UniProtKB/TrEMBL annotation:
Annotated family: Belongs to the ABC transporter superfamily. Ycf16 family.
Entry keyword annotation includes Transit peptide: no
Residue span(s) of domain ABC transporter: 4-250
Residues annotated as transmembrane: none
Annotated SMART domains: AAA
Gene: sufC
Molecular function terms from GO: ATP binding; ATP hydrolysis activity
Pfam families recorded: ABC_tran
InterPro entries, A to Z: AAA+_ATPase (IPR003593), ABC_transporter-like_ATP-bd (IPR003439), ABC_transporter-like_CS (IPR017871), FeS-cluster_ATPase_SufC (IPR010230), P-loop_NTPase (IPR027417)
CDD domains per the UniProt record, alphabetical: ABC_FeS_Assembly
Name of this chain's protein: Cysteine desulfurase
Keywords (A to Z) from UniProt: ATP-binding, Nucleotide-binding
Length: 259
């Protein structure tokens, strides 16, 4: 079993503290939803997990399978088995989706076994077509430049295709539902549901209940003021959909005043 453990995490960007003592544990086989209003630090959490250089960790730890990863570069974290699906995937003209995926996959395999010579091209093509069929992607996508000219839905499906190909142990989906219409959201969610299982832990970061209608979480956490202030099951997300975040603010701010 793989475990991502975040302990008392404090993170600043350009001198402003965003995360203020966040604690969270995600294990393989679990799906956690991270919800909260704008500006509370949800994306900061995802970028910090993957080692974005603009985010300074001032206190706390991030442990992956017992190993503190804070001194590791982003590519090292990825090769260990961490994955981030971006809210706004960037285009890389000149690099085809297939070449990008094969390079990333072979780097991951070599990290596990230094003697690995990489997946043979025929085997890779067969595997990639199977993954694309699962996500209902046209095979011609493999020859297109990564995210170059892709629609919002195509970009998000390409992110899930990366996840399917690399087989991470813990995956963070940073507002994957952002900018998707209902059909694209359903297809992307079906892809995630196909991949979920005992060997994959998933953290779904979102504002809305909408994606959680398709990806059923085991745990729901509410972020406010740079911390997780409320945790529960799927019913917590439904309560947020119905009542908004005001009751959480009132409860949290009341505790802060009384404390």
């Amino acid at each position: 079993m793989s475990v991502l453990e975040i302990r008392n995490l404090h993170v600043s960007i350009e001198g402003k503290e965003i995360l203020k003592g966040l604690d969270l544990t995600v294990k393989s086989g679990e799906v956690h939803a991270i919800m909260g209003p704008n500006g509370t630090g949800k994306s900061t959490l995802s970028y910090t997990i993957m080692g974005h250089p603009a985010y300074e960790v001032t206190d706390g730890e991030i442990l992956f399978n017992g190993q503190n990863i804070l001194e590791m570069e982003t590519d090292e974290r990825s090769r260990l088995g961490l994955f981030l699906a971006f809210q706004y995937p960037v285009a890389i003209p000149g690099v085809t989706l297939a070449n990008f995926l094969r390079t990333a996959l072979n780097a991951r395999r070599k990290a596990v076994n230094p003697e690995d010579k990489g997946m043979p091209i025929p085997e890779f093509r067969k595997m990639l077509k199977e993954k694309m069929d699962m996500l209902r992607m046209d095979h011609a996508f493999a020859g297109r430049y990564l995210n170059d000219g892709f629609s919002g839905g195509e970009k998000k499906r390409a992110e899930i295709l990366q996840m399917a190909t690399l087989k991470p142990e813990i995956a963070v989906l940073d507002e994957t539902d952002s900018g998707l219409d209902i059909d694209a959201l359903r297809i992307v969610s079906e892809g995630v549901n196909t991949l979920r299982g005992k060997d994959l832990g998933v953290m779904v970061i979102t504002h809305y209940q909408r994606i959680l209608n398709y990806i059923q979480p085991d745990f729901v956490h509410v972020m406010l003021g740079g911390r997780i202030v409320e945790s529960g099951g799927p019913e917590l997300a439904l309560s947020l959909e119905e009542h908004g975040y005001e009751w959480v603010r009132e409860k949290y701010e009341g505790e802060a005043v009384n404390g």
